[in-house]
Amino acid sequence: MRVLIVGGGVLGTMHAWQAVRRGHEVVQVERELEARGASVRNFGLVWVGGRAAGEELDTALRARELWQEIGEQVGGIGFRPNGSLTVVRSEAELAVAKQVAAAADARRRGLVLLGANEVREVNPALAGDSLGALWCQRDAAVEPRLAQPALRQHLAASGRYRFVPGREVRALLSNGVRDDHGEVHEADLVLLCTGAALGGLVREIAGAVPVRRVRLQMMQTVPAEFRLSTSVADGDSFRYYPAYRGAALDELNRVQPQPPVAAEHKMQLLVVQRLDGSLTIGDTHEYEEPYGFDVVEEPYRHLVEVAESILGRPLPAVRRRWAGVYAQCVDTSEVVHRQRVADNAVLITGPGGRGMTCSPAIAERTAEELGL
Ligand SMILES: Cc1cc2nc3c(=O)[nH]c(=O)nc-3n(C[C@H](O)[C@H](O)[C@H](O)COP(=O)(O)OP(=O)(O)OC[C@H]3O[C@@H](n4cnc5c(N)ncnc54)[C@H](O)[C@@H]3O)c2cc1C
């Protein structure tokens, strides 16, 4: 079959991976010269621990297996099973960590509660305040800036894959698509993995989809002189992942509301060390459009303060700041929105803040459902 994929982000690339693996001919069309959407702006966290029980956790666990397999074949994506520590710094946060670690599915998630000394054994760079941490051994990381090009290079070696950058798909045809240069790309099946682009072509062929957009602020330091052996989160992250809900979290929210800046910008701290030693740090969440076109400083100051208090040392200088937008299903219990938009075309969008994590398993499921 000739499969045409619209969108050069991780979801499009993982669909290309599945289609090539199953013996099909694949063309992937991207409107920019290189992927520039959520897939290159994210942390690269393959984040399993906090997923909602059921389909979301099943998808994340399957995706974690697939990332590992893909990482073994494509070293350039930088896959590493480094795990994560959610550091707790108050009794109320510790109570949440204890409740989560005692849950029936904690082992499946790879979650273990560590005391303060064990935290330093697992990640010696964490020299700051801590009462302990929730250690997720299943969490992993990849390099978002490197993953797409590395995957494409590997796919191209099959002889059945071609990347067509700098072309915006403007029309869906019964025999493929037409791009903004007027060129027709013939295909038997079109998969639209167009991310947070919900207007234009998507609006014309799919109407209003049950997906909203979310904007985040991020930053990255210069390479650090120390090594972070795990990714790191703060206790505020308990407030954002469904697996942590329960009486202990309700109590945390009651006795320890987020600091005003963190509450206003719906923040948590996440830190991932890149392969070059630099630290990717975030994040904020903005739900109401129109979004600011600029990034604001107050949340960055808060993130630096929290990160330095957990690390017990000054952060390296910040070198890059950016914002990114992802598409998220309005019904957040949906892992992704799949919509048949024509006999020969399916739209796949809305994996939300877990799209990097889940993309290999989402693509595998699409391939199975379509009988590829
Ligand atoms: C700041 C930030 C941090 C995040 N951190 C994480 C994380 O650590 N872990 C995690 O699991 N998830 C994370 N996410 C979510 C994750 O990045 C996204 O869910 C995922 O990247 C979505 O991939 P995508 O391919 O659907 O979208 P995108 O990466 O946005 O790709 C869509 C592509 O389609 C192209 N396109 C659109 N329309 C057309 C057209 N008509 N013709 C041609 N091309 C078109 C766009 O140019 C774009 O390149 C984060 C997101 C953000 C923004």
TrEMBL record:
UniProt xrefs under Pfam families: DAO
GO cellular component assignments: cytoplasm
Residue ranges annotated for the FAD dependent oxidoreductase domain, each copy included: 2-368
InterPro entries noted in UniProt: FAD-dep_OxRdtase, FAD-dependent_OxRdtase_HpnW, FAD/NAD-bd_sf
PANTHER family with a match to the protein in the record: SARCOSINE DEHYDROGENASE-RELATED
Protein name: FAD dependent oxidoreductase domain-containing protein
